[in-house]
Amino acid sequence: MRKLKKLEMRGISKSFIGVKANQDVNLNIQGGDILGLLGENGAGKTTLMNILYGLYLPDEGQVLINDNEIRLRNPKDSMQAGIGMIHQHFMLIQKHTVLENIALGYDGAPFFFPQRYMREQIKEYSERFGLDVDPDKKIWELSAGEQQRVEILKALFRNADLLIMDEPTSVLTPQEAEDLFDILRKMTKEGHTVILISHKLEEIMAICNSVMVMRKGKVTGNARIEDVTQKDLARMMIGREISSCFEKSDQKPGEAVLEVNNLCVNNDQNRMIVNDLSFKLHQNEILGVAGVSGNGQREMVEAITGLRHALNGQVFLQGEEITNISARKIHDRGITHVPEERIKHGTVSTLQLYENSVLKQHHRNPFSFRSLMNYPLIKAHAEKIVKSYNVDAASINTPIKNLSGGNIQKLILGREISAEPDVLIAAHPTYGLDVGAAEYIRKELIVCRDRGGAVLLVSEDLEELFQVCDRIAVMFEGRFMGIVNPQNCEMDDIGLMMAGAIPEFSPAPQGEN
Fold first, then answer.
1. Which residue in 10, 152, 174, 378 is a FRET match for 72, CA 20 to 30 A apart?
2. What residue stretches are annotated with the ABC transporter domain (predicted)?
């Protein structure tokens, strides 16, 4: 018989340095259900679940399990109450094995032959829930999906009746995501309960029994899944309808701004990952790059922006060669970059918002003169970006790490576009963002193109590429399979090219315009 029959959170409120993350939030879930906790980036979803897991203490409110109030002062209290949490970024030790990671902090193994006991338990849970994983493999050897299974096993070993999952599919392939959903369905059939934090409407509709929607720290809706549509959820989530397509003016491409000839680049394992790549990017154009992750997209972008050494080939900006010069010089000459990993490579987490607003420009006029920073001007610049790009922050003095992922991405995009680049390179700019933030960023890319800029958009989201791009190049094993006009092809054609197949129509070969 399961321990958890009902969980309630009543009147939960929590603030951080003047920001109201949760305001009088009520949550109810029945045992054996999967509740989708839906909302924009920064809506307060993760804060609420961190309170339930004992990482934060609420300013107000109470938590009840089976109608009995409990006080969760730390994660140990939550685990003892049968609550486990799997964070968006896994809490595993990379150099240790699966078995060692599960054993860390677990005191349920017998004194004699504990490893044998752990293996037997791992095998039992694996067969019961489909959590197939090799206990002797080191964590760094596992895929993201396999690492997530280890996290689930850790929670099950600690008798978690309720499992909180924070954006669980953000690092998974579509196949791994479907495997995860199968695991969660098996767990709920055995009486476990799941709260799934997400901003993906289709994910909530596919797996959850019920949904609670949050916006700006407040609850804006509760429903059973069978009673709502994706449009209903989007309206609750951001307060308006989401555009399925964008108005795009017809723009005649101008002169070639960026030209890449026979580019060859190695990956981190010193194997060639970009192989003899050639293409041109024009003014008033968005060129999309589609492809399955790992086919050289990241290395191509890093070579163009000066972050990685090119083995061979040439890169020209406005007819001037910029191959293998420094990233700072490339930025100064007119190429700005929205990086794939926005936290790690796009910001300095300990610096304040206004300081991050001038990264890569801080050494130049008008923001500095003879090594002296013009702070009034920098702050005015930050205020302008915050206002123009709808960055939701308490103030420009807020540390950037306190912003949600969507607001950090808006700040980075505003910073890079405000530099008035000849070329904007955006790598997965809407990855991990809610539908409202993604819609806003896509529109800004179109605005940049309409102002005369040239945009290179790398994305695995085919719908995004079809919405905003003038041409789409499909990358496979370090080369472009071809370059197509999205108005003259189907998504299935792009999918075939992503797998290395040639569709029935004939796309333009790489390098052709």
1. 152
2. 7-241, 258-502
Q: Give domain status of residue 353, yes or no.
A: yes
What tokens were used for 2?
């399961």
pLDDT, tens only, 265-301:
998 878 899 999 999 999 999 999 998 777 899 999 9
Inter-residue contact 466 to 286 (CB < 8 Å): no
Asked, for residue 468, whether it belongs to a domain, the answer is: yes
Query: Hey, what amino acid is at 375?
Result: Y
Judging by DSSP bridges, how do beta strands 368-369 and 162-166 pair with one another? Answer: unpaired
Q: Provide the residue count of the chain.
A: 513
**Residues with Cβ within 8 Å of residue 58, at least 6 apart in sequence:** 12, 13, 14, 22, 51
pLDDT tens figures, 98-150: 898 888 877 776 677 678 888 888 888 888 888 888 888 998 888 778 888 89
Give the dihedral sign, CA 239/244/247/252: positive
pLDDT of residue 226: 93
What's the domain range around 511? 254-334+423-513
Structure tokens at 489: 């092809």
Across 438-458, average pLDDT: 90
d(CA 110, CA 66) in angstroms, rounded, equals: 31
Instruction: Tell how strand 335-338 and strand 423-427 pair up.
Output: parallel
CB of 12 within 8 A of CB of 218?
no
Q: What is the largest CA-CA distance in the chain?
A: 75
Cβ(287)–Cβ(470) below 8 Å: yes
How confident is the model over 29-47, as pLDDT tens digits? 999 999 999 887 678 898 9
Q: Is residue 191 situated within a structural domain?
A: yes
Of 420, 444, 473, the one marking the end of a domain is 420
pTM as predicted:
0.63
